[in-house]
Amino acid sequence: MISDGMLIAALIYVIACLGLVLYQQQQTSKLRVKVAALSLLIKESDRQRETVKRELQELRSGTIGVGRRMLELEKRTAKQDARLDEVNQQDPQTRLYSRAMKMVDLGASIDELIRECELPKAEAELIIRLHGKG
């Protein structure tokens, strides 16, 4: 027959095993809660990453569009500058007035305009009023 000592030892062993099982279940439950929280954080992070990715793509598309428009404007401006230069070179009177405006920008007086550009006094005064710095 089984002795009392062996019965007590078996009972202690069973209680110890039950304690270990309960402890493991408690730890597993805590880990599940942590895993669930981390999963939520990962989902939120993925959602935010996708949002940022979409916004970045929109910015790229917008930047490309603006760049193309800028290139078009630069081409147009260059063409207009070339046309203006061509017109200025063809018309001696325009060259004269362009020179007078440059002189005004550099601070020339009415007398200097009259002398250097051979302008009438009224035209020299008008150019200084229209293009003067003050």
Task: Write up this protein.
This protein has 4 helices and no strands. With about 130 residues, it is an all-alpha fold. The mean pLDDT is about 90.
SSE topology:
Elements: H1 4-90, H2 92-105, H3 110-117, H4 121-131
Task: Report the biggest beta sheet as strand number plus sense, adding barrel if it closes.
Answer: none
Q: Helix-strand pattern, N to C?
A: HHHH
Percent range of helical residues: over 70%
Gap from first CA to last CA: 123 Å
Mean pLDDT: 88
Descriptive key words:
90% helix; 4 helices; 134 residues; rod-shaped; mainly alpha
Summary of the model, kept short:
The protein has 134 residues and is mostly helical.
